[in-house]
Amino acid sequence: MAQAFSQVSGSGWRPGRSHPIAALRLTPAELTRRLRVEFEEMEDDLDRFKVAIVKSPSEHRFALVRYIHNPSKGTEIWARSGLSDMNADLREVLSILNLGLDDLAWTHPRIFRDSLASGLKKVRGLAIVKSSPQAARLRKVLSSKRALSFRSGPRKSVRAVTKKK
Asked: Does any domain span residue 164?
């Protein structure tokens, strides 16, 4: 199967010109194995990182970035800051990389997963991933009044007790 993207050098890429739009569950090693992209090691003010720049047939460039000391497992997808439609950007990069919604660990808050899923379903016939039960429980807890209060029950005072000799 022919690739729907080409890889370009990451030497001119800087984090300040782009922003993360999503995070993949896949590590750079897994992406290299699966997509045959090569990551370059670079450094910025935060840390050392691995980056691979992929270019779509429409000439859009996307960076696959993994900071070396990031405690999470995945690889972030970065897009140019000037691009206004994050949904279209993410749909495009997932399409050219032949990845689906189940490969995503996180999406930018401005991305609407429902519109993304429907767009991908039309283009690729991918299955739509439902929200997990854990995410639903977390939303319920965070929206409840109890989650807004740090104290539950009456406040108890504590006195230091010293023994007399």
From this structure: no
